[in-house]
Design goal:
alpha+beta; ADP-ribosylation fold; three-stranded antiparallel beta sheet; 6 helices; binds ligand HQG
Length: 181
Amino acid sequence: MDHRARVRLSKRMSLALRHEPHRLGLTPDRAGWVAVDDLLAALRVGRDALDEVVAECDKQRFAVERGPDGADRIRANQGHSIPVELELPAEVPPERLYHGTGAAALDSIVATGLHRGGRHHVHLSADVETARRVGARRGGPTVIFTVAAAAMARDGHLFHRSANGVWLTEAVPARYLTPGR
Ligand code: HQG
């Protein structure tokens, strides 16, 4: 598969596993897993193509493992809008984390903090470069917020880290945010 075909399939897999499984007749379990064979049938793709996306995906969006029934299963590592219980343990975050977004959101975020929108968590990056890439998805100028993550954790906010290294928390109150880095 060339790069564009991989991206296309990755997007279809994201839609199926994070947002609209039911439209495809898929029923993820509580933790978001579906049988690989069911996903292949729903998307009408072969196992080789799926394995290629899972392995080559720049962000390791997907996890594949042997399920309790002995069959392979797959889930998205993060980013769901359907209810899932990822069962990630709480982790102590580093001193600082970063959030990249469109400059248009600056004033609103400074006023009200970071909200999770349609997803389960606010997504934070461990490094500025990743935050910049996330913000660039919005098109137009971007802004990077520095999040005083360790201080948040000391104040009782829970953090989780997804299997692909994205830091997750429910919300970031404005007082922990500094625009710029
Ligand atoms: C913004 C991609 C105004 C927030 C990326 C963001 C990431 C506010 C948007 C992952 C706000 C939500 C997540 C406020 C938050 N006022 N705007 N008070 N609070 N926002 O896509 O962090 O390709 O749900 O800044 O790489 O952009 O899907 O979150 O712009 O890792 O694997 O509301 O999605 O990964 O947008 O991106 P999103 P995100 P995948």
